[in-house]
Design a protein that fits this description.
Elements: H1 9-13, H2 28-40, H3 45-48, H4 54-59, E1 62-67, E2 71-72, E3 82-83, H5 93-104, E4 108-113, H6 124-137, E5 142-146, H7 154-160, E6 167-169, H8 179-182, H9 188-200, E7 204-211, H10 217-229, E8 234-239, H11 256-268, E9 273-276
Parallel strand pairs: 1-4, 2-3, 4-5, 5-6, 6-7, 7-8, 8-9
């Protein structure tokens, strides 16, 4: 049985530290994207996920779109996305997403999706066509695809990453010992293998890990070593925040100094780029990761 940290009643009631306060989004570029999103009723993860970096990213011309619906076949304990059998599969979605990206004038687009385990190809064809259509309408726009676990369906993986995107990301989310609690339908080694095969396919690789779930420093170091050994180029580290009372609790608020330390350690251990900070999310500064 996996031992997890015991969280006191006092820790449950404590307030977020000052370093997790977020500035209100401002700027001309942000206002422009905000207006287009409202006018055309576009769907971005930036909004639905209440991302703390929305203003900064939109100001830099970066936005994140979710494809393949909003119902996930997984039930991860950290994620607020609805769980169940997805009701939709829209063959016209690639065109609509590409048009939205063109309309918004996005310089760097991040595409992500729910898990579609019920589909034989895991949604790979929609992934492929979305990248193809986006490149057709916005050839200067760079693309990162944040793809789900394909459960070792490697043919699906290769189709998913063959559209011409510059970066392929797949989030590990946490350290190995916490997988059963945090990602019960995923496997640590399988996600590492997916990153390795993506790298061998010739893609720039990226992953993200949440901190504050009860992991130990040595476990974070091991995850970094494992990622470097499996060909991961870019790592993002950010503070986990509990989306609702139904989700796994925060075990610890990680101090910014420790995030700085982890950045240095990741670089020492062979990762090419480490984005590390309390408010860092998977797509934070994503436009910088294209040329790493």
């Amino acid at each position: 049985m996996i031992e997890l940290p015991v969280i006191s009643e006092e820790s449950k009631k404590r307030k977020k530290p000052d370093w997790l306060r977020v500035k209100l989004p401002v700027g001309k570029e942000y206002a422009k994207v905000r207006k287009l999103v409202d006018q055309h009723k576009l769907h971005t993860i930036c909004e639905s996920g209440n991302c703390p970096n929305m203003g900064e990213c939109w100001g830099a011309g970066t936005a994140t779109f979710m494809i393949l619906g909003n119902v996930c076949t997984r039930s991860c304990s950290f994620c607020a996305v609805a769980t169940g059998r997805p009701p939709e599969y829209d063959l016209d979605e690639p065109r609509r997403v590409a048009e939205a990206i063109q309309l918004m004038g996005v310089k760097h687009a991040v595409l992500t999706s729910v898990n579609r385990d019920e589909l034989k190809d895991r949604g790979a064809e929609i992934w492929y066509q979305t990248v193809i259509e986006t490149k057709k309408l916005s050839p200067e726009t760079t693309i990162e695809t944040l793809i789900p676990d394909v459960k070792s369906s490697w043919d699906a993986l290769y189709r998913m990453i063959d559209g011409g995107q510059e970066v392929v990301s797949h989030n590990m989310e946490t350290v190995e010992s916490l997988y059963r609690r945090v990602r019960p339908q995923a496997k640590y080694q399988r996600s590492l293998e997916q990153i390795k095969l993506t790298k061998e396919y010739g893609k720039r690789t990226k992953t993200g890990i949440m901190l504050g779930l009860g992991e130990k420093k040595e476990e974070v170091y091991k995850a970094m070593d494992d990622l470097a050994a499996h060909g991961c180029d870019i790592l993002t580290l950010g503070q986990y925040l509990q989306p609702t009372k139904m989700h796994i609790e925060v075990a610890e608020f990680i101090h910014p100094d420790l995030f700085d330390h982890y950045r240095e350690e990741g670089l020492k251990r062979g990762l090419k780029y480490v984005e590390s900070g309390p408010l860092v999310r998977s797509s934070y500064h994503a436009e910088r990761h294209v040329n790493v």
